[in-house]
Amino acid sequence: MLLLLAGSAWADDAAWTNVGSAGNFTQNKQIRMVSERVDIQLRDKRSHFRATFLFRNEGPATTVTMAFPEERHGDEKHSRGAISRFFSTVDGRSVKVRRQRLPYDPSTGSEYRAAWLKEVRFSRNQTRHVLVDYWAENGDIGDYVSNKYILKTGATWKGKIDDCIVNIDWSAFRDQSDPLIVLQDGGDREEPEPGPLAERRQTLHFRDLEPDFDVLIDWVNGATNFQMNGEMMQANGIGGDRNSYVFGGSTDPKIAIRYVPEVFGADVTEEGMEPEVGSLFSGGSHKVRVLGDRTVEIDGKTVKLRRSGGIEEDQKCIFLKDLVQALAGKFHYNASLDRIVIWVK
Question: What would the pLDDT profile of 65-104 be if each residue is shown by its tens digit?
């Protein structure tokens, strides 16, 4: 499931049963999901999802209803659906899919707006390939974009999933952070190991899986991909007050003065904040104090920067490129990675 901060859409076909005029998920004891592959292409406003499943019938002939629920996009009963351009195939042939609107029930707080349903016929011991393809709006609250791909719906089928691959590609991003990808099951799980710095994609591979966790995908609307002296900075471009502190595009960003230390990998303060002027940090082997939007002190010597950073969203700013040049460092924008590369001795 792609969980949008304002709404979402499931991405694993699930077993479904009708109860009167409504419906619900069920546990199928005969059909097994042997494998799945999910390809996620993250985009600025909405993202593309393509999921392929291999199902095997381990019993007599049967017809099942496969359900692809769609969560609410917005709040309560006035929300809208998040999915568009939805289609599905079985063994390469298009199948009829109907969108069943689900009633809003404030007593249960149901998050489902609709379910995309299709009937799939299985002969005895038959294996079938099922594909689902759609676009879904991103959940964007202005600073953070938070998505979730839920694997749990695969647990509605019999047994475990032999092989599961989730490919996440964000090569289309511009002036946005690389996403943070975390496995979440309500307990402790480590973040997946990231790929090489040269790549803008990640593959998660699971075997013998009984899915009980989700894949969280979070990123920030801002040019916050900083690599300094070969290491990626951990700064995400959002301050403790939920305000952005990176302004402008990746080629020549401004940084709010009080957060300059965070961009350079230094601790701001124990509380995570820093006065707007006078912040002290290490720029490579140099001690730097930011005195204003155009003035810095480097190793005790006052230096005038080339430009004034001015004020953005009530925050005094400094041009990052000008600061790096004042430190006799190198500032390079890698367009293919949408990444700022900084070298400071």
Answer: 998 877 665 555 555 677 889 999 999 999 999 988 877 6
Same domain flag for 239 and 100 = no
Question: Torsions phi, psi of 321, nearest 5?
Answer: -60, -40
**Whether 257 and 211 share a structural domain:** no
Number of H helices, E strands in the chain: 2, 30
DSSP 105: -
**What pLDDT, on the 0 to 100 scale, is given for residue 218?**
82
Q: Where are the alpha helices (DSSP H) in the chain?
A: 260-263, 320-326
Which amino acid, 225?
Answer: N
Indicate if the alpha-carbon torsion angle 205, 340, 142, 255 is positive or negative. Answer: positive
pLDDT tens string 149-203: 768 778 889 999 999 999 999 999 888 888 888 887 755 565 666 666 568 899 9
| DSSP state string for 164-219 | EEEEEE-TT-SSSPPPEEEEESSS--PPPPP--TT-SEEEEEEEEE----EEEEEE
Q: State the DSSP code for 95.
A: -
Do 215 and 138 share a structural domain?
Answer: yes
**Residue showing tokens 């013998």:** 208
Q: 324 CB contacts (<8 Å, ≥6 apart)?
A: 330, 331, 342, 344
Listed residue (276, 281, 274) closest to 293, CA to CA: 276
Residues 214 and 234 reside in one and the same domain: no
